[in-house]
């Protein structure tokens, strides 16, 4: 089994990162709709793997798709899993639900989403043009998208900040679990020598920055795009989901 983990390191990592979202969906059925709504927006980011591979890291891909296509099956699993738990981590851990806030018409939701994607994509292209490494560019672009949302929705500031912390903590624990299953993972697969080369309990600092940035933007994304706000979950609502 350990040989399988080592051989298919990215598949192992992707499946590991899918677990929190599955557990959240099982524990909080009311959050399944949230996960279903954000997945279509997140999956296109799986196609950006070519920006990370092989300059940032060089994992093994099923059917060698990373080299042949620029992304693989593992990217889809990883991105879906990451979106599922970073979007819902705050609501799950802090016992929050969603209430209405402003317009949630399909047109308004699409315009808000398109604006965010336009901002994020444009900033990322600009950062890459100036030679900023993709891992830092991705974190900065996500942070900029989050700040743009918070500028219009200050009520989401505290949830987004806390959601980033919760997501970073979960991301860190998942990385530790991955390192336990695949000893030497971050030293052998990541090109940390090209970056800060700083580790937290063996996990590259860049990965923790990515985990926080993902949670920061994802926590605010659903309520911002779909015209929702965080509300305290009542005992009755909690009982109904058991």
Summarize the structure.
With 242 residues, this protein is mainly alpha-helical. The protein has one domain (2-240). It has twelve helices and four strands; from the N terminus they run ααααααβααααββαβα.
Task: Spell out the key features of this protein.
single chain; 242 residues; mainly alpha; two-stranded antiparallel ribbon; two-stranded antiparallel sheet; 6% strand; globular
Overview of this protein structure:
With 242 residues, this protein is mostly helical. The chain has one domain. Helix content is 69%, strand content 6%. The strands form two sheets. The protein has a two-stranded antiparallel sheet with strand order 1-4. Helix 8 (134-152) packs parallel to helix 11 (205-225) and helix 9 packs across helix 11 (205-225). It is globular, with a radius of gyration of 18 Å.
**How many strands appear in the DSSP assignment?**
4
The pLDDT mean sits at 93
Largest sheet: 2 strands, antiparallel
Q: What is the approximate shape?
A: globular
Helicity, as a percent range:
55-70%
Q: If strands are numbered along the chain, what order do they take across the biggest sheet?
A: 1-4
Radius of gyration: 18 Å
Spatial gap, N to C terminus: 35 Å
Number of domains: 1
Structural class: mainly alpha
Give helix and strand order, one letter per element, not per position: HHHHHHEHHHHEEHEH
Number of helices: 12
Multimeric organization: single chain
DSSP strand content:
5-15%
Q: Which regions contain 5 or more consecutive residues with pLDDT less than 50?
A: none
